[in-house]
Structure formats: structure tokens, C-alpha cells
Amino acid sequence: MIALLIAIVLPAFSWRNGHSVMDLNGANAGVITRRDKSPVNVCARWGLQAAQLNGTLYLYGGRARSKAGQTEDTWNNYFLSLDLTKNWDVDSPELKGLERPDGPPEVSMGYLWHDYNNLYLYGGQFSDSPYVEPGPESLWRYSIADSTWTEFKNPKTSSGNESESGNQPVHRAAEGAGLSVPELGLSWYFGGHLDWATTPGWSRDIDRVYLKSLLEFTHPGYVNSGVDKLSTGSGAPESGAFRNITKAGVQSGNFTERADGVLVFVPGWGDMGVLIGLAGGTNETFTEDLKTLDVYDIANSKWFHQETSGDTPSVRVNPCAVIASAPDASSFQIYMFGGQNLPFGSQTQYDDMYILTIPSFTWIKVDQKGKNVPAARAGHSCAMYDGQMVVVGGVGEDIECDPGLYVFDASSLEWKDKFQAADHGGDHHPENLILAGSFGYQVPDAVHRVVGGDSDGGATATTPAAGPATGGPFATGKPPVFTITQGATATVRVGETGTSTATPEDDDKDGVNGGLVAAGVIAGIFGALALYLGFCAWLYRRQVSAYRHHLAVTNRYSGISNSTFDPSPASSGNATAASAAVAARPNRSSSRESLFGWVGSSRDQGWTTEPKWRAEDEDDTTPSAMGSSSGGGVPKPNEDVRPGTSGSGGSTEGLLEGQEPSFFSVVMGPRRALRVVNGAE
């Protein structure tokens, strides 16, 4: 009896050892034990992996000096967070040191992808002073809710549109441009390099290889029409799905290899928005100058060249860039700050800032104001939140000890001495529905003097100023259409004049009496409630009748072995469903989630704003660490995976629980009660 209790009851519990959750049934295998808190105060930091999620800026790894002049032992896996929902001073930011994991590597210049619930560490290079042999090529996932890391070893690519063949190793690249768009369930890593500091077994006699590929990551549960195995409606497995895009449009022709650039997402053009690649180069030469940019159409997996105009910046590597939307989405401003020139070894850092305004593709040099202007730097990270650009880290000739936390007001074009969190309950405010981070943002005078309109938007420049686009979404001449993906189900169409053509609310106070409308609504609600309760009463009588009939049949055959009706996995033959690991569905439950909008939804192409969960029998790369692995499937979270419950539900569902059904249970679950009645008949 004791052995039976251990076998059945114990696996249902988790043991918390004071540091991490260890599920004894293997569902959370691969969880890494945590260590000491990460230090917050350093002399300087640069080359970080950063992600802004739900009002928190996460910083992982990179390089840091504890004192001026330090040249060795700078690589680390420090893990920090910064709350952007509260005010803080630049001189005393409230950085929080999170626990350093004993697993994720000490790397620099990789990227932190993210969805609504997790961070994913991809790429990065290991220390060269002293030299550290690169570890296994893995993807690491950090659960925000559980504060735990999980390793997915040896990921493989999947075949798809404009990509290399599937089942190829996903190598660890460094110095590429990373980006995540959780509303699409997609992340990317553009360019970068492979060498002895990134790839296990790479000989120092083999030259570094620079990349021009676009590595795409489909987050767990999301479909992707560009990936063969996800194009039929099944979602990506728990380890996600990789596609190595190398043949997309001009990518196979006049398209240079590059590292140390940036990648920015712009919604509204094309079925899923576009990516714009800025800056970058090799260790000696730059990519095309910033007068010609590379634009990627996400839905069609195609790269295009786009000419720009205006005050073009000098070519550079290692800048940072963020984007903000005009309140009416008639224009988007990409802010690019800093960077450095080439060749390696004799580089000069920049302290200038430029704005690229979309869709006119015009460069505008910013006349930076304020008393807290940072020194010239490269290798820094940026994030946009509440209309303010937060700059973290950076290295330069004039920087000895500068941990590098600065705040730039993107509306007034002024460096501030504090971050001022906006007063809003989460990111559901209409002014922030088009692009995350744009709450409170106003179009600067320097921009609307060029594109028209005013601080609230209304841009009249709706096409590239350098001339008609030669290809891609900007060549269609169609105005962008932004579909709000959460909250109010509204559509904003930016017309030829750049003004919103959404239907305004009726402000006529002399119209219909508000009291009569309210009374009518209340009467309608009570009427609907009465009908619903009447239906539930009828259904309740039917279910009670079915229950009593079933009970009589059961008593009639009481001599049959109890195992006939045993709802355990062994007797039901549903052990797989009973033990399957239920993945957390990407959701938007947090009150502080950042939202995007984009044109269309293109449901006919297989793209969707909601994840489609894959079948349980689909192949999966299970997470593993310390020689253990997790359970297999990723069933839809609302699936019933209780022991003894079949996937489709049987005719006796709900009749074996040992008690007569109640009217309240019918009111709360009429669909289930109806299935029971129909099945019993």
C-alpha cells in the first residue's frame, strides 16, 4: 500500500529546496540551480544582452570592469533588472541584482530574445583573455514567473521558405543584431560571426566567418507559414523552431556580410510589418553606407534595398537603436545613438544621434540638449519606454569608470537626470497600442518640420523622399493599417494625408438620452440572464436524470471488477496525456505588458496572433541539463489532461465523480453538462 502511494501521489508534488523548484516527475528537468546575487556596482559594463519586457529591463552577461584599467576577467554572467514603471535618478538607478545561474555561460554580444513569459539567451562569444573554450551550443530559457533557467541542447534548423535545408545545427553566433516581436511569436538574429570564441572545436588557424543570414526563431506554440513543419497549423514545440534564412530576395545577390549592426521592427507595412537593418560591417570594412538600407518583409520572407535622404550619418558599427510611434501612427522615428568606426584596433567612438523617420526614410541629425550628455561610446544597449530612451553601458576612449545609465527624452530631444515613469495603469492606453514604449511620445519639432503635421502626428510625407521604392511593401503605395491586438478591437487606417480615418466617437450631447440607453442595456442584461438560468434549469434536470440512470446501471453490474471503471492512466490507456508537460501559453495577463499593432492579420497565410499548440506526438527537442530531460508534449493549456480523461471525452464524463451534479455546476459549466447529457443518450 505504501509503495502504491509513493508511485501515485509523490510524482504529483514538487520539492522546493530553497533555491529552485525540482519536479520529481521530470516535468521540470533541466532546471538549473541558482547561485549568488549578481553585483550591481561596477566600474564599466558593455556588450550586454538586454531585453525590455512588461516594464522591466533585463540585462545579462556581457563584459564588466570592477576597476579602471582592468583588461582581463571581464566576461561574466551577471543578471540584472531595472524597473521602468518607477521613477529613478540617473546617478542612483535602482538596479536589482538577480541570482547568477550555474549553467548559462559567461558570454558577450549575444542577444536576449523574449516572449510574454520568458527570456531566451542565444549566441554570444566567450572570453579571449583569459581564453575560455566555448561550451555546448544551446538555447537557454529563463522563466520570469519561476526565476529558473532551462537548457535546450544542440538545436537544429527546420526547412522553410528562402532558407537552408532543415536538421542543420544552429551554431552560436556573436555580434549579430537581435530583435523580438512577441505579438508575432517571432525573434531574429541578423548577421554576426563564427570563430574560435563562439564555436566548440573551431581552430585558431581558421579565419573568422562573417554572416549575412537571418536566423529566425518561432516561439513555442506559434504557427509560422514560412516553416514547413509549422505551416499546417501546428505550433512550434517547447524548444521553439529555427529557420536559417539565406536566400531571401537581394540576400542572395548584392548583400554583404556584417556584424555589429542593429535591427528594428516597424509595423504597418506588409502583412506582418518589416525589419530594417542599420549599420554594421566586418573587422575592416563596412556594409553599404547608411544611405542605402536593407528592409525585410516578414510575411513574404524577402529582403529589399531602400534608399534614404537627408543628413545621412557616417558609416559605423556598434551603435544602438530604438523606435517610437507618433500618437496617430502616421510616422515612426528610429533613434540611433553612438557607435564607432573601423578598422578594428584604431577605432573612434561617436556621441552623435540621428533620427530616421518612416515612411519618408529621411535622416535627421539631432541637436542634443541637456546637461547629462553621455561620452562617446560603443557596445551599449538601448530601450524605449514611456517615450524615453534608456541607454545602458558602453565603452570608449574617454570612458574609464562609467556604468552607463542615461535617459533621453525622445520628444524634447534632451538628456535628463532622471527617468520619469508615466502615470498609466499598464499599457492598455490608446496612445500606446501601436508600438511598445511610445506612451506619452510626441513627434519632435525637428521631425514634423520635415514630414509635416505636428507633435500629435498628422505626417503628410507618406512615401520615401528619395523617390518611389523599387520593391517591397513600401513600393505598393498602400497606407498602413494597424490592427489593435489587445484591448479595444479597433482598426486605425492612416490615409494619404497621414490622418487617422478611424470612426470617431459620437460626442453629440443632444442626441439619445443617456438614461434611457442605460435602462435599456440593464433590461437587456437581466432578460438575457433570465433566459440563461431557464436553460440551465432545463439542462440540470436532464443531467440529474442521466446521472441516476447511470448509477442504476452501475449498481446493476456491481459484480464487475472495479478496474473496469478505474480512471487511472494505466487502465485508461491514456498515460501519455496524463503525464504530458503542459506548456504555459503565451498570454497577456500582466497589467504592464507592452503592446504592438501591425497591418492586417493575414490569417489565410497561416500567421496568427494567438499560438496554435502542436500535437502531442510531434517530435520535440526536449530541454535538458545535468543529464536529465523533460516530458514530451506541449498540449493546449486548456486541454483536460487529468488521469483517466480521454482527449475527446466519453459518454460517462462527469458521471463517475461519486456525487449528484449540482445546479451551480451546471450554471458554471453548461457546455460540459450538455456533453454529459448528449453522451448519456
Distinctive features:
alpha+beta; repeat; 40 strands; four-stranded antiparallel beta sheet; Neuraminidase; disordered N terminus; iron; five-stranded mixed beta sheet; about 10% helix; about 675 residues; 7 helices
Q: Secondary-structure blueprint of this entry?
A:
Blueprint: H1 2-8, E1 14-16, E2 21-23, E3 34-37, E4 44-46, E5 49-53, E6 56-60, E7 63-65, E8 79-83, E9 88-89, E10 95-97, E11 99-101, E12 111-114, E13 118-122, E14 138-143, E15 148-153, E16 177-181, E17 186-190, E18 193-194, E19 209-210, E20 214-218, E21 241-245, E22 262-266, E23 274-278, E24 292-297, E25 302-307, E26 309-310, E27 320-325, E28 332-337, E29 353-358, E30 362-365, E31 381-385, E32 388-392, E33 405-409, E34 414-416, E35 418-419, H2 445-451, E36 481-484, E37 491-493, H3 514-556, H4 569-572, H5 575-579, E38 597-598, E39 624-625, E40 628-629, H6 663-668, H7 670-680
Parallel strand pairs: 26-30
Antiparallel strand pairs: 1-2, 3-11, 4-7, 5-6, 6-8, 8-10, 9-35, 12-13, 13-14, 14-15, 16-17, 17-20, 18-19, 20-21, 22-23, 23-24, 24-25, 27-28, 28-29, 29-30, 31-32, 32-33, 33-34, 36-37, 36-38, 39-40
Describe the protein in words:
The chain has 681 residues and is of the alpha+beta class. It has a domain of 466 residues: 6 Propeller (Neuraminidase), CATH 2.120.10.80. 12% of the residues lie in helices and 24% in strands. A hairpin with a 4-residue loop joins β16 and β17. α3 runs parallel beside α7. The chain starts with a helix and ends with a helix.
